[in-house]
Amino acid sequence: MGITSDPTTTGTAPDPVRRPAAIRRQAGAWRSGLAWLAALLLSGLGAAAHAGDRAMPARTDVATAPAAAKVKILDTLVFEPKTLVVHVGDTVEWHNESLLVHTVTADPKLAARPVDVALPPDAAPFDSGFLAPDATFRHTFQRAGSYRYFCIPHEGANMVATVEVRAATAGGTDRDSGE
Questions:
Q1: CA-CA distances (angstroms) from residue 173 to 82, 162, 166?
Q2: Which of 115, 132, 117 is nearest to 50 (CA)?
Q3: Contact 143, 120 (CB under 8 A)
Q4: Hey, what CATH topology would domain 54-166 get?
Q5: How many of the other CB atoms lie within 10 Å of CB of 120?
Q6: What is the pLDDT of residue 171?
Q7: What residue ranges do the domains of the chain occupy?
């Protein structure tokens, strides 16, 4: 018995099923597509794992004071509460309780729709960067007024909320329920 060579498969193992060339090409393309999809998913998981690594602004957005109020970021693409009332000097903490990556953004330059952002005159814009699941962001409010903010990835789903910042009273801060 001699060994015969097939010039069409030089350098590759012979196809034991002897499928037609078109089917072999489809199978190769399918495996290539799966490899591409796996690479895409793995890179997405890596990006999500590092989503909270986005550089924070150099301003005082990363507050160290205890939070006077907390906002939950939920899987239902809402900030809870939707409207929060605090006082000048208060720090608000947002906690991402969702399985998704979110942002807390009050920067007109980053909004797709101008109506999703409102800042009092002379108030500095702020942006949390991407918040991975279970991450937190804190911001201390220095100016009274209405702050309308949104989530960059979910702005199209109307994921917006408001923080109403009131001036401190003469006798100290008078806490409102926010309702």
A1: 22, 20, 9
A2: 132
A3: yes
A4: Immunoglobulin-like (2.60.40)
A5: 13
A6: 55
A7: 17-49, 54-166
- Is residue 62 pLDDT above 60, yes or no? no
For residues 14 and 39, the model is more confident at 14
- Which one is predicted more confidently, 49 or 16? 16
Amino acid present at 131? L
- Tell whether the model's pLDDT for residue 179 goes beyond 50: no
161-171 pLDDT tens trace: 999 999 987 65
Q: In 3D, which of 66, 51, 64 has the Cα closest to residue 128?
A: 51
CA distance 7 to 164: 77
Average pLDDT over residues 150-155: 98
Other beta carbons less than 10 A from residue 155's beta carbon: 18
The predicted structure's pLDDT at residue 168:
80
